[in-house]
Amino acid sequence: MSFKSVCRSILFGIPIGITFLDTVGYVAKVEGISMQPALNPESTNTDYVFLSRWSIRDYKIERGDVISLTSPKNPKQKIIKRVVGLQGDVVSTMGYKNRYVKVPEGHCWVEGDHTGHTLDSNTFGPVSLGLITAKAVCIVWPPERWQKLENKLPESRKPLSLSI
Fold first, then answer.
1. How far apart are CA 93 and CA 112, in angstroms?
2. The whole model's pTM is what?
3. Contact (CB, 8 A) for 101 and 111
4. Which of 68, 76, 85, 147 is the most exposed place for a label (fewest CB within 10 A)?
């Protein structure tokens, strides 16, 4: 291969790679215990998940989805949480300033699976849909943990009333 063809491959490959990462998705390391037991069930192993940007392109999320979002408290930080409530839902909070919250239009309510060990909507309130960056689709590493992430919500965390 000549130097010219290598340069041409790089010049075409970089924009294609960037477009893929911006449009389709990427693999990310999950740090912390806030999503245990779904993610990082043992503190000795770290899960890596595929985050699909394509899945949330129209902000179509469902209760139970595991999503990545920009932290409302620290815009430089990305966090991963489960969607508990959608706009119009009334949710029972755990330590938020109000016992019940109606999720406003254009927002969702997110929580970590490890109650009491997570900074989530119970700390910062409803989250703007615009902060959502991707949906966690599956665990890709370590190999013994390969699995699709289920869209499930514990019965105790289901909204008290659902929007239609």
1. 13
2. 0.84
3. no
4. 76
What the block records as the tokens of 53 is 């940007």
Q: Give the whole-angstrom CA distance, residue 158 versus residue 83.
A: 10
**Whose CA is closest to 87, among 32, 140, 126, 48?**
126
pLDDT tens for the chain, residues 1 to 164: 676 665 566 666 566 656 555 667 888 889 888 888 888 888 778 999 999 998 888 878 999 999 999 999 999 999 999 999 999 999 999 888 989 999 999 999 999 988 878 889 999 999 999 999 999 999 999 899 899 998 888 888 888 876 65
Give the 3-state secondary structure of the chain: CCHHHHHHHHHHHHHHHHHHHHHCEEEEECCCCCCCCCCCCCCCCCCEEEEECHHHCCCCCCCCCEEEEECCCCCCCEEEEEEEEECCCEEECCCCCCCEEECCCCEEEEECCCCCCCCCHHHHCCEEHHHEEEEEEEEEECHHHCEECCCCCCHHHCCCECCC
